[in-house]
Amino acid sequence: MINSLIDMIPKLCQLSNETEWIEFKKNKAEPDDIGEYISALSNSATLHEKNMAYLVWGIDNNTHQVTGTTFKPRSKKIGNEELECWLNMHLHPRIDFRITELIYEGKPLVVFEIPPCQHTPVRFKDYEYIRIGSYKKKLKDFPEKERSLWLQLSKTSFESGIAITNINKDDVLKCLDYPAFFDLLGQNLPENKSGILEALQSEKIIKKKSSTMFDITNFGAILFSKNLHDFDSISSKAIRVVIYEGVNRIKTVKEQEGSKGYANGFEGLIQYINDQLPTNEQIGQAFRKEVKLYPVEAIRELVPNAMIHQDFNVTGTGPMVEIFTDRIEFTNPGRPLIDALRFVDEPPRSRNEKLAKFMKKINICEERGSGFDKVVFFCEFYQLPAPEIIVTENHTKVILYAYKTFDKMSSNDKIRACYLHACLKKVQMDQLTNASLRERFGIEEHNKSIASRIIRETLKSGLIKPVDPDSKSRKYQSYVPFWA
Q1: Are the beta carbons of 161 and 153 closer than 8 angstroms?
Q2: Which domain does 199 fall in, by range?
Q3: Do the Cβ atoms of 13 and 7 come closer than 8 Å?
Q4: Reported confidence tier of residue 228, pLDDT bands at 50, 70, 90
Q5: 217: closest CA among 202, 238, 195?
Q6: pTM of the entire structure?
Q7: Pair 99, 149 in one domain
Q8: Which residues of 71-110 are buried (b: 16+ CB within 10 A; e: fewer)?
Q9: Average pLDDT for residues 176-198, to the nearest whole number?
């Protein structure tokens, strides 16, 4: 996109010296100074509701005359570390700034494109910075600016951010899979470019900047990009599918990273995952058939959940599906916004409301709930071990386990299944009983004591409670989740 930057240079030069989201330099390029400017410009861009901030070498800051520069960021090192990597290590949170070296009017320029901060102010080393007029200052020394910035951050979201700015209509259509956009919405493809662009604008896929120039939003790029790697700010959010040999990560058989957007690439992704799954042979009365070890319905819920509920502010990582011989793990960046024990019953909360709403609109997600109750249902239907949720500092993981005989299930497997069975019964306006748990595990009626033992262990864990705690009859007792 060098051409769009070249077109932008004269517009930037016309701006006032007091513009707080742009800085011009000749040759001075001290690493700490650059880091502080990236922090200041990113925070100022958010404060002034700009899609991008710019740090430009080769233009005089007073006269705005093009002078050229001797600064070579790609060859500059701090110790043995490259400048870009060093800057990223000291910026918190890391932001996807872009460095471009170009020739303008026959003279070399260097442009740092710096996205606005999201979620939290950008800090360099120990401090956040801000622009005050043409000066770079510590944010903490200007409490009114800091309050205004936090107020602005509360209004912004990842989806409304800009993936590519200031490109013409032809480049928009080259970057986006617009036929898939109309197909998924069940609409006819307009006969001309204007109609296509208007429809994309109406869904916030793009923003119009002028009569000829547009921005592609993060929302539009993550959903409908032809190639996610064309967008630096979201390239790490491509979904990876990794297949391992055995039950650990020692040997990788195959690894595939998606390139399409989440919407236009969804069906292909699901098909690819299903093609990698092991099968069992079932013998019917007259024929044999291959059956997948995991319910496709559960996979179709967990993949979009990983997309929608991820925290896009966790940089350098995206959703991942890992396939082992005994399980599948679905991992997304970010901790859940609700308690993991309440995934079945709590209404979903997403950091990415626009993304969730649109995925529902094109029937990739359920209109109601998180879909996790459906995952639990199909695991029960096929008598698989209950799904497991693991929350770490920066990630959420859901695990589907392959079939195990009852005697191979651990105590934790049985307690988890009992609790989720109680949750599922509750949202179905029903209750857990000894009989319903036997059916869930395939336990014969004469082995009631086995189901009773599982219920007792789940009671001890505090995950379920009796409906009538005063009843002395265990035979007819029923149970609900602890939160009911």
Answers
A1: no
A2: 162-236
A3: no
A4: very high
A5: 202
A6: 0.72
A7: yes
A8: bebeeeeeeeeebeebbbebbbeebbbeeebeebeeebbb
A9: 95
Comparison of pLDDT for 128 and 476, the residue scoring more: 128
3-state class (DSSP) for residue 350:
coil
Angle at 258 between CA 257 and CA 264, to 5 degrees: 175
Q: Is residue 246 within 8 Å of 272, Cβ to Cβ? A: no
Task: Kindly state whether residues 37 and 101 are assigned to the same domain.
Answer: yes
**For range 417-424, the mean pLDDT:** 97
3-state secondary structure of 473: coil
Neighbours of 326 (CB within 10 A): 14
Instruction: Kindly indicate the confidence band of residue 283, based on its pLDDT and cuts at 50, 70 and 90.
Output: very low
Bridge partners, 98 (sequence order): 113
Q: Please, what is the end-to-end C-alpha distance for the chain in angstroms?
A: 55
| Burial per residue of 262-296, b for 16 or more beta-carbon CB atoms within 10 angstroms, e otherwise | bbbbbeebbeebeebeeeeeeeeeeeeeeeebbbe
Q: pLDDT, tens digit, for every residue of 334-367?
A: 888 888 999 998 877 777 888 999 999 999 886 5
Q: Pick from 206, 236, 266: which residue ends a domain?
A: 236
67: helix, strand or coil: coil
Residues 304, 314 within the same domain: yes
pLDDT in tens, 133-142: 889 999 999 9
Structural domains of the chain, count:
4
Report percent pLDDT > 90 for the chain: 67
Q: Is 331 exposed, middle or buried (0-12, 13-18, 19+ CB in 10 A)?
A: buried
Q: What is the mean pLDDT of residues 108-113?
A: 94
Cis peptide before 93 (omega within 30 of 0): yes
**Helices 296-308 and 266-276, interaxial angle, to 10°?**
130
Question: Are 107 and 168 part of one and the same domain?
Answer: no
Give the distance, in angstroms, between the CA of residue 349 and the centroid of all CA atoms in the same chain. Answer: 14
DSSP for 205-240 reads SEEE-SSSEEEEEHHHHHHHBS-GGG-TTTGGGSPE
Do 113 and 187 sit in the same domain of this protein?
A: no
